[in-house]
Q: What sequence folds into this?
């Protein structure tokens, strides 16, 4: 194992707080990791099975996981504390045959000033045959300034025969604007499970686009989005799934709406094969009155009941 | 402990509750029965604060609670089990029991409560309270959430509604043990003779009024004589 400090920069309290919101600092240091701060890599560790190399042609890193690597964890958190920074990064993950790993990414922005801070992470995953990845991505924004905190992640997933990926993404607090794009291209016997959780408030804007092609026999995908939109925030959920072979897809959008918020769900399922079985469900509505009443009979005020319902919904 | 004074409730020009006056004592097991549409559910919802009466007063331990919210009444010691248990997304049985008990309970304690209502605790404690649970399972969880509160007054709105006969036979055993499980006064809406038989008093309601209050046996006889027997389901072989 080797550990490299790329820059002589120590993590300060704000940095550690941000990292704590999107990950667990203790846990990060146990496996391979790469910490990026304000557009530069500041700390990295590689392991015998997982190598991380800085890209030469553009900002970002390549992560190589050796075949048959079992149960290792890779953390690649990004933090931005510099107001006005626009950080664009390309990270490519190459997952070897039959490897089984957990990858934890996330971005925390702390903006105390007037200029907008932005992070656009373009992540591409190339899974070889039989590989399995659990990918967890968490986004978080904080700070007293009126400069916006903007995150536009793109996730491209290419699944070779027999591989599978489970992706969990969440954006619970403080991100002013986000456009999240997830693309899946699936070969034979692959499975792609996506679960997304979003909460917006104030004047925030969130748009989610899923574009999944089931190109191989018995490819399957399950896309679940749970979101809460409050105040004057706006959310758009767009899901496009193409069943080009004997395949199965289930996409589900479930949103709670409050105040003057707006939510639009646009499901699109296209079957280009008679054996494609594609399902979409979408539900948007306010918190059910009976749920509030039940929790109030257990002693919670209306506000506390609402908080419990939302906490459970986004769990 | 609970007193209802001149309670009236009407909707769409129909009197649903017509000048109800009722006193309920401490540590009693009281059943309310009567035909559908006689105002039973509305009456208990008014006690919990889920519905507001058009006129009249609800008095708990001498205090007028007519204008208090549901949660404030819960804090004063009124518990309520819904006829149709409410389902959630993401909230687990354990979460609900923790909220209900208003203190940090550990999983072992939560499991003990579930066992008391006849659920195999380990299988259920981490389950979400959602549509994947059967009607009978949801009813038992609903009972557990009110039992754990140990309220002064616990109300059950027709617990037998919406579950199959087999689940009900099991559930009724829970109620027969309920007098130990639930402390304080129990007010239960039921059409089941087995439940009426374990009650200290039975209140018979008809067309928004209290027709009669008495022991199970005499009320049953009266309902049969007045041809209102359809509202009570008799157990086979019970005379």
A:
């Amino acid at each position: 194992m080797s550990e490299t400090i790329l820059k002589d920069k120590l993590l300060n309290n704000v940095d550690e707080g941000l990292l704590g919101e999107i990950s667990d600092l203790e846990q990060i240091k146990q496996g391979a990791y790469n910490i990026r701060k304000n557009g530069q890599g500041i700390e990295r560790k590689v392991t015998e099975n997982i190598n991380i190399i800085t890209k030469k042609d553009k900002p970002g890193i390549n992560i190589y996981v050796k075949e048959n690597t079992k149960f290792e964890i890779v953390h690649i958190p990004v933090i931005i504390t510099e107001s006005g920074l626009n950080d664009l990064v390309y990270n490519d993950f190459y997952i070897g045959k039959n490897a089984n790993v957990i990858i934890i990414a996330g971005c925390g922005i702390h903006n105390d000033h007037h200029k907008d801070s932005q992070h656009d992470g373009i992540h591409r995953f190339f899974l070889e045959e039989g590989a399995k990845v659990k990918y967890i991505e968490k986004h978080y924004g904080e700070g007293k300034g009126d400069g916006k905190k903007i995150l536009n992640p793109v996730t491209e997933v290419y699944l070779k025969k027999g591989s599978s990926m489970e992706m969990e993404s969440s954006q619970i607090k403080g991100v002013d604007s986000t456009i999240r794009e997830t693309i899946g291209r699936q070969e034979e016997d692959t499975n792609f499970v996506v679960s997304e959780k979003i909460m917006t408030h104030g004047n925030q804007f969130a748009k989610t686009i899923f574009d999944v092609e089931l190109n191989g026999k018995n490819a399957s995908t399950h896309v679940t989005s749970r979101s809460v939109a409050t105040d004057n925030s706006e959310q758009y959920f767009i899901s496009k799934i193409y069943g080009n072979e004997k395949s199965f897809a289930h996409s589900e959008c479930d949103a709670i709406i409050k105040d003057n918020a707006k939510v639009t769900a646009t499901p699109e399922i296209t079957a280009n094969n008679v054996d494609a079985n594609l399902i979409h469900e979408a539900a948007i509505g306010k918190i059910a009155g009976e749920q509030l009443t039940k929790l109030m009979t257990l002693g919670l005020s209306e506000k506390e009941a609402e908080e419990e319902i939302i906490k459970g919904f986004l769990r | 402990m609970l007193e209802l004074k001149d309670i009236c409730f009407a909707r769409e020009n129909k009197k649903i509750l017509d000048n109800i006056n009722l006193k309920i004592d401490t540590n009693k097991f009281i059943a309310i029965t009567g035909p559908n549409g006689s105002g039973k559910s509305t009456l208990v919802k008014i006690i919990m604060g889920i519905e507001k009466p058009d006129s009249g007063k609800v008095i708990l331990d001498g205090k007028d609670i007519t204008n208090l919210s549901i949660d404030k009444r819960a804090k004063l010691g009124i518990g309520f089990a819904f006829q149709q248990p409410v389902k959630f997304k993401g909230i687990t049985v354990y979460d609900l029991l923790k909220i209900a008990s208003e203190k940090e309970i550990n999983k072992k304690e939560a499991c003990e409560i579930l066992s008391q209502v006849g659920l195999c605790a380990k299988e259920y404690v981490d389950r979400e309270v959602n549509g994947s649970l059967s009607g009978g399972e949801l009813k038992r969880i609903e009972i557990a959430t009110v039992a754990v509160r140990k309220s002064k007054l616990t109300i059950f709105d027709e617990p037998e509604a919406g579950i199959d006969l087999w689940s009900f036979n099991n559930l009724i055993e829970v109620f027969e043990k309920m007098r130990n499980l639930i402390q304080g006064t129990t007010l239960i809406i039921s059409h089941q003779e087995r439940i009426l038989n374990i009650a200290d008093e039975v209140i018979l309601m008809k067309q928004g009024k209290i027709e009669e209050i008495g022991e199970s046996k005499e009320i049953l006889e009266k309902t049969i004589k007045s041809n209102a027997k359809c509202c009570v389901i008799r157990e086979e072989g019970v005379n």
User: Anything to note?
Assistant: The mean pLDDT of chain B is 86. Chain B touches chain A through 23 residues (CB under 8 Å). Residues 165-181 of chain B form the longest helix (17 residues). Chain B has nine helices and ten strands.
